Automatic annotation (TrEMBL):
Residues 32-51 bind DNA. SUPFAM superfamilies: Homeodomain-like (SSF46689). It comes from the Bacteria. Residues 9-69 form the HTH tetR-type domain. Keywords: DNA-binding. The keyword DNA-binding applies. This is AcrR family transcriptional regulator. PANTHER family: ACREF/ENVCD OPERON REPRESSOR-RELATED, ACREF_ENVCD OPERON REPRESSOR-RELATED. The keyword Signal does not apply. It holds the Pfam family TetR_N. Gene3D superfamilies: Tetracycline Repressor, domain 2.
Length: 211
């Protein structure tokens, strides 16, 4: 039975890799279930053995990819650091991973992938929250942060950073992003009860992008 489950999961993950590429390339809204099945070169019955719907396979593909990304962030996480430096490193690692595939990002940000993009951002918030909450709790214990609800604070920070800084979603001008980043630094400082300039590296990122 264990062998069968392993084979099932391996095959399912193999299909999810292909399904991710189908949605990225073709667009979630423009991709029908019959197109997915045809592209995977499998029968309807075989597909339904692994997934119940287009939405389920999309959600599973997104979850798998975000899990890969979060694993990479965790592998580069340095628990020996103080919480403020640790959070800085985690944020920068996440930004680097997010920006590492510009061609894929363009496709994710296309109008035909609006629902897919939204699902992706929600999943990122959910999967990153435990790590952020752990670091915030560490900061409370160290006296660096002053937060009563670490999990909720982590959720709010991740939601704001994911959605608010999405230029394609809000159609922000590039010129306005520096002031938004500076405002986000101030908000982050107050939410976490941190010292001034703890998060000044965020606006520096946007300054580097301008130059």
């Amino acid at each position: 039975m264990a062998r069968t489950n392993k084979d099932f999961n391996n095959k399912r993950n193999e299909l999810l890799e292909k399904i991710w590429n189908i949605f990225i390339t073709n667009g979630y809204e423009d991709t029908t279930l019959s197109y997915i099945i045809q592209t995977l070169n499998m029968s309807k019955g075989a597909f339904y053995h692994y997934f119940s719907s287009k939405e389920e396979c999309a959600d599973a593909a997104i979850e798998m990819y975000v899990t890969h990304w979060v694993k990479e962030i965790i592998e580069q996480d340095t628990k020996e650091l103080k919480s403020d430096e640790r959070l800085k490193k985690v944020i920068l690692t996440g930004v680097h991973i997010a920006n590492s595939n510009s061609e894929q990002n363009k496709k994710i940000n296309s109008s035909s992938n609006a629902i897919f993009h939204q699902k992706l951002m929600v999943n990122i918030v959910k999967q990153c929250t435990p790590l952020y909450a752990e670091i915030i709790s560490q900061g409370v214990n160290e006296g660096i942060f002053n937060v009563r609800y670490p999990v909720e604070a982590a959720e709010m920070i991740l939601t704001l950073s994911n959605f608010y800084f999405d230029i394609d979603l809000f159609k922000w001008s590039k010129e306005s992003m520096l002031s938004k980043a500076t405002a986000f630094e101030e908000l982050l400082t107050r939410v976490l009860g941190a010292e001034n300039n703890t998060f000044s590296f965020i606006s520096r990122l946007f300054k580097e992008e301008e130059n």
